[in-house]
Amino acid sequence: MSDRTAVARVGDVALWVVQAAVAAYFVYSGVMLFGDGLVGKFEEIGFGQWLRYLTGVLEIAGAIGLVIPPLCGLAALGLAGVMVGAVATELFLVENGGPVLPAILLAITLAIAWLRRDTILALLPGRR
């Protein structure tokens, strides 16, 4: 195995470790959205509790997708979209919002999507 191949393999393993950690966080976060702890926050947002459940489903689905090789890039892109909404919500709809964590998760999920862009492109028609 060449040095370049070994470095690429180590980088791939490191990226999978990051993906697994991010997936674990989103499972935790998604499950928390089904509890009563965030009802007040979603009342403050003003769109109704359906948004809380939808966000929980999207986070859990994205977490599952992050650990499925053909879907990991698309899942990261979807989670980035959820985090764009979270950052905007924390900045503009929640009094004393905290946009830092969603912004960090946005950056991480965008990085994963970029680094796994080959899996996204493979899903396009005629790209297999």
Automatic annotation (TrEMBL):
Record membrane topology: Multi-pass membrane protein
Major localisation: membrane
Matches recorded under InterPro entries: DoxX
Source organism, top-level taxon: Bacteria
TM ranges: 13-38, 74-93, 100-116
Keywords assigned: Membrane, Transmembrane, Transmembrane helix
Keyword Membrane: yes
Coiled-coil spans in chain: none
Record Pfam families: DoxX_2
Compartments, record wording: Membrane
Name of this chain's protein: DoxX family protein
Species per Swiss-Prot/TrEMBL record: Actinokineospora soli
Organism ancestry: Bacteria, Bacillati, Actinomycetota, Actinomycetes, Pseudonocardiales
